[in-house]
Design a protein that fits this description.
globular, 256 residues, six-stranded antiparallel sheet, four-stranded antiparallel sheet, binds magnesium ion, Creatine Amidinohydrolase, alpha+beta
């Protein structure tokens, strides 16, 4: 069941989204060669707690940390630990903020130091996939317009998209309906309506779309160990525009 949000509720989810975007601004300052993923986790945790919010993923389905840290061939759900980042790595950060019961979700993939041109291209194209997907999240379209925009851009750049994980509704819970596939596959295809709040999150791989889960039962990796990138925003569908809720950019509305 898709739970639509009224304008006050969208405002509150946006308040959570603002804290989330501020957290990323802080994390971008500290991500560098030599830092451990546990230190990144601690920084994210402490920042949101100081703002009177809580990390939405901590203990969610028993996830043992505040933020997901996924390095190189890791796609999503990497668990922070003692591993230190190295120059040339890419690191995906996926974080949720719960502000008094209103939840926002966003992800970003950052280069560590200088990364090779192919990795740079993967980051650029994946972020473009996100923006193209968001632009389709307008009243009257269907969810698969988002999926197609993401898929077509990734494929036209000779990348592939992960099929086993997808975007979703968000706001009152971490995961709500509808599912938003990153490819035009099977499943429901509801019409997009005013009041939907959606977490759109392309996961793009340099090689195969196939993924595996490591023995920690969380970390998802590409089956061929190729690099993977992940970008995500929480957005709200309004009557005549789309509002990005997880950005500090003043220019956060896309008119129809
Ligand atoms: Mg998400």
């Amino acid at each position: 069941m898709i739970r639509l949000k009224n304008i006050e509720e969208i405002q509150r989810i946006g308040d959570a989204g603002k804290i989330l975007a501020e957290t990323y601004t802080e994390l971008e300052k500290i991500v560098c060669a030599g830092i451990s993923t546990r230190e990144i986790d601690q920084a994210a945790h402490d920042f949101v707690m100081r703002r009177g919010a809580r990390p939405a993923f901590l203990n969610y389905r028993d996830f043992p940390a505040s933020i997901c840290t996924s390095i190189n061939e890791e796609v999503i759900h990497g668990i922070p630990g003692s591993r230190k980042l190295q120059n040339g790595d890419i690191i995906g950060l996926d974080f949720g903020v719960d502000l008094k019961g209103y939840i926002a979700d966003a992800a970003v993939t950052l280069p560590v130091g200088k990364v090779n041109p192919e990795a740079q291209k993967l980051l650029k194209v994946t972020e473009e996939c996100l923006n193209l997907g968001i632009a389709q999240a307008r009243c009257g379209n269907r969810i698969k317009h988002i999926s197609e925009a993401i898929y077509n851009h990734a494929k036209s750049n000779n990348f592939d998209v992960v099929r086993k994980y997808c975007g979703h509704g968000v706001g009152f819970e971490v995961h709500e309906d509808p599912q938003i596939m990153n490819y035009p596959g099977p499943g429901g295809n509801p019409r997009i309506k005013k009041g939907m709040v959606l977490a759109i999150e392309p996961m793009v791989n340099q090689g195969t779309h196939d993924v595996e889960i490591l023995e920690d039962e969380w970390t998802v990796v590409t089956a061929d160990s190729s690099l993977s990138a992940h970008f995500e925003h929480t957005i709200a569908v309004l009557e005549d525009h789309i509002r990005i809720l997880t950005t500090l950019d003043e220019d956060n509305e896309i008119g129809y």
